[in-house]
From TrEMBL:
Keyword Membrane part of the UniProt annotation: no
CDD domains: DD_ROP
The keyword Transport appears for this protein: no
Protein name from the UniProt record: Ropporin-1-like protein
SUPFAM superfamilies xrefs: Dimerization-anchoring domain of cAMP-dependent PK regulatory subunit
InterPro entries per record: ROP_DD
Keywords annotated in UniProt: Cell projection, Cilium, Flagellum
Record family assignment: Belongs to the ropporin family.
Annotated compartments: Cell projection, Cilium, Flagellum
Length: 216
């Protein structure tokens, strides 16, 4: 079909007044998030924006961590984004997790490795998956729980990184239960002592409350 012989001028092109601000926020978000695949991430960004969902955007630029494995994909900032997007559901559909994961340009192989650590055939129990993702970031139980507290806390950055005791106990018990070298009695003893310790702190657990103890 031949192209219509129509001339366009600037006056004929309607630019929505909100578009400049949308593009400005999009540019800032891309700079903060530093996606590996800008096109894929942009698709996820505008899909979330159109549907009124949490955007796949980091709160700040993350500097590379010397101790982190090369090409590990997942970072604390990206896991925090996933948590904001998916935590409202106790159980997340596998397809939805796969889409959010892909839109953050994370390696599919890493997602498969995490899913193989438990049985998620009936859907992905989000807080269990979150715990597994923290273990991928941490390596040890102590560092895994530190990441969990820093991601979940509502304290300001640089603060105590406190989380409710019940949340901490669930994540800790789950990860410890996957480690055959940690007896259940040791887990229960540690949590009982921690419970008593934080009872005077409105049952909130901060990083300093457990990082000096031997947990794993």
């Amino acid at each position: 079909m031949p192209v219509p012989d129509v001339m366009f001028c600037a006056q004929q092109i309607h630019v929505p007044p909100e578009l400049p601000n949308i593009m400005k926020q999009f540019t800032k978000a891309a700079i903060r998030t530093q996606p590996r695949d800008v096109l894929q991430w942009s698709y996820g960004y505008f899909s979330a924006l159109a549907n009124g969902e949490p955007l796949p955007v980091k709160e700040r630029v993350e500097m590379p961590v010397a101790t982190q494995k090369n090409d590990s994909g997942l970072t604390p900032g990206l896991l925090k984004v996933l948590h904001k997007q998916l935590a409202k559901k106790e159980t997340v559909a596998l397809k939805e997790l796969q889409i959010k994961w892909k839109n953050l340009c994370l390696p599919v192989e890493q997602l498969h490795d995490l899913l193989r650590l438990d049985n998620f055939d009936d859907g992905v129990a989000w807080m269990k998956f979150f715990a597994l993702a923290c273990s991928a970031l941490g390596g040890s139980l102590v560092s895994s729980m530190k990441h969990a507290c820093e991601i979940l806390t509502e304290d300001p950055e640089g603060g105590a990184a406190r989380v409710p005791y019940d949340t901490f106990a669930f994540l800790y018990s789950y990860l410890a239960g996957l480690d055959e070298e940690i007896p259940q009695e040791k887990t229960e003893s540690f949590l009982a002592a921690l419970k008593e310790q934080v009872a005077r702190k409105e049952d909130m657990v901060g990083v300093a409350d457990f990082s000096v103890k031997r947990m794993d």
